[in-house]
Structures are given as C-alpha cells and as structure tokens.
TrEMBL record:
Residues 51-329 form the Fe/B12 periplasmic-binding domain. InterPro entries: ABC_Transporter_SBP, ABC_transptr_periplasmic_BD. The keyword Signal applies. SUPFAM superfamilies: Helical backbone' metal receptor. It holds the Pfam family Peripla_BP_2. The keyword Coiled coil does not apply. This is Iron complex transport system substrate-binding protein. Belongs to the bacterial solute-binding protein 8 family. Residues 1-22 form the signal peptide. It comes from the Bacteria. Keywords: Signal.
Length: 329
C-alpha cells in the first residue's frame, strides 16, 4: 500500500467513525452559551442550536462529518439527490435523521419543524423569491448559517473565498456553533493533509483540459472558479476550462467549449437525468465530435454529493487524480 493510499484509508476511516449516528459530546474547550461568528459579511451571535435543520447534501454531510446526526431536528433533501444519498458514506446517518421534505427549502417546513437554526446556501436553499432568507428567519427568532461558498452570491458586497477554504471555514465554524471545536479541527486537518498530498503528487507538464458538464443541451451549465468542482479538478492535476470565470455555477456557450478543446469531460451525476443519457448526448453532439475527450472516450463521473461544497470534495479529487493517471495524464 502506498503512503498516499494508507493516509487516505486512515483519514476516511476517521471521518466515517463520527458518522453513522455517532454521539459526540461537547469538546473540552466548548462551553455552553453563545458564540459570535462572521458569516457572509454579517456578525451573528449563535446560541447552541437545539432543533437544527439542514438543506440539501452540502449542509447535511457537513453536519454528518462532524458527528452531529443525532442532534439534528431533520433535513430537507430534494428527491433529485436520492441516487447520491444512496451512494453516500453517511447512508446510515441519512436513515437516522427525519426527512422533513423532498422539495426545496421553505419557510413552512422550517416552522412546522419548530426549527431554531437552519443551514443552507444562498440561492441554493435560502431565497428572496421564495421568502426564506436569513433576515426573515431572524425576525422569527430562528438563526441561520449560509455556506461560505455561497457568500459569493449574497448581498451587494459578496465575500470571495476559494472553494476548499470555504469548506474548511464552514466545518470550523459549525464546530464552534455546536461546541465541538476539537472534532472540527481534526476533520479539517485530515482533509487538508489529503489535499496537500494530492498537490505534491501532481505530474509535471501542462495539466489536461477538463470540461465540467452539469447539464444543458442548448447551452451547457458548468462550474466556474468559485464552485467546488473547479477545486476538485485542480487538486487532481487537471485544469477546468472555465477556471478563469469568476462565477460559481454558470451557463456558457458551446463555442467556448469547442475552442477550449477539452481532453476530459467530467459529468455531474444526480437525479435530474441519468448520467448515461448525459454522456450519450455529449457523444452525439456534432460540435464536440473532434475534441480529444470525445475522440478518446474520456468521461469521468462526479457524484452530486461530491460536486457540492462538502466533505466529499477531497475524496472526489483523489478519485479524479486516479482517473487521470489511468489514462496517462
């Protein structure tokens, strides 16, 4: 077993040991009471949540990675995430926590659950249009926390934090809010160590050009620099063809994809459409026919649970690095 594989096995075991309904006592340095946190440009005082609700896989798996499943009131999980939930390393935790809704996050669901704290992203959970915002929840006495990655889209003065640092920030701050700082520090240290191992093993030479395909036929929906897949591709030793777009997820034109001449296509797999159908479309789409990715049949599947900001990001980068090595890149 190589040293990198050994490290991965040990750290993955460490992460999973706190999932699956583990009971986590407050750390020795966490006292009961309130903590003050900076989140999306706001300074917020948080009492320790007693009935927390998490939306979607990004929120839920951050909580599970910190061993907080048994302290959750429930989750809101859109049905499109079902296949990824079944593949999650925290499947047992998903089974142990009540699913409050299989639709988008709504104020009604939060109030019906008598939640006192909500974890979600801006425009991927919280929404001005749907009337569930941090300020609205504040007015009802319900605290909230937004994913740091999504602060890029929030307010008139967006907060820009690189995707992996945004993940680490969330885990550390959730550790403070729930008074399990020691546990959060260990989880972050494990993830950082694995990320550094990947950086050190990147091959010399020009990185392979990678097109991240989420969905779309008229125009493709893809990841810009501010979303997790960009960091996953970079850590693995590739270069996202839209790495220079100062966006999270965005729509681009097919012309720019063709001009970038991708060598590998990473396809996001979630329940909106079978990944096999997405790949079949890409293979049959005439403008892409002469790109190296299509000519050499180089497709890599990225699970939805790994594509959103969450503790599976590093494992996804490790898997993609293995794929790039397997094709000699």
């Amino acid at each position: 077993m190589t040293s990198r594989v050994a490290i991965t096995v040990l750290l993955t075991t460490s992460l999973l040991a706190t999932g699956c309904g583990a009971n986590v006592a407050p750390s020795s340095n966490g006292e009961s009471g309130t903590v003050t946190i900076e989140n999306c440009g706001r300074t917020i005082e948080y009492p320790e949540p007693e009935r927390p609700v998490a939306y979607d896989m990004s929120s839920t798996e951050k909580m599970f990675a910190l061993g907080l499943a048994d302290r959750m009131r429930g989750i809101v999980m859109p049905s499109t995430a079902d296949p990824s939930v079944k593949r999650s390393p925290w499947r047992e935790d998903y089974s142990s926590v009540e699913t409050l809704s299989t639709d988008v996050l709504s104020l009604e669901v939060v109030l019906d659950a008598n939640a006192d704290w909500v974890l979600a992203g801006w425009e991927s959970g919280f929404s001005q249009a749907r009337g569930i915002t941090p300020s609205k929840l504040d007015s009802l006495g319900i605290r909230s926390y937004q994913h740091t990655e999504s602060c890029f889209n929030y307010g008139s003065d967006p907060v820009r934090v690189p995707p992996l640092e945004a993940l680490y920030t969330d885990l550390r701050q959730l550790g403070k809010i729930f008074h399990i700082e020691d546990r959060a520090k260990r989880v972050v240290a494990d993830l950082k160590q694995r990320a550094q191992a990947l950086r050190e093993q990147q091959p010399q030479g020009a990185p392979p050009r990678v097109f991240i395909y989420d969905s779309g036929t008229d125009k493709p929906f893809t990841s810009g620099a501010q979303a997790a897949p960009n960091a996953i591709v970079s850590l693995a030793g590739g270069r996202n063809i839209t790495h220079d777009l100062d966006k999270r997820w965005t729509t681009i034109g097919w012309e720019s994809v063709v001009q970038a001449n991708p060598e590998v296509i990473t396809v996001v797999d979630y329940g909106d459409k079978p990944v096999e159908d997405k790949i079949a479309f890409l293979k049959s789409f005439p403008p892409l026919a002469q790109t190296p990715a299509i000519k050499n049949d180089r497709f890599h599947v990225l699970d939805y649970g790994a594509a959103v900001s969450g503790p599976r990001n590093i494992a996804a980068a490790e898997k993609f690095a293995d794929y790039l090595r397997s094709i000699g890149r």
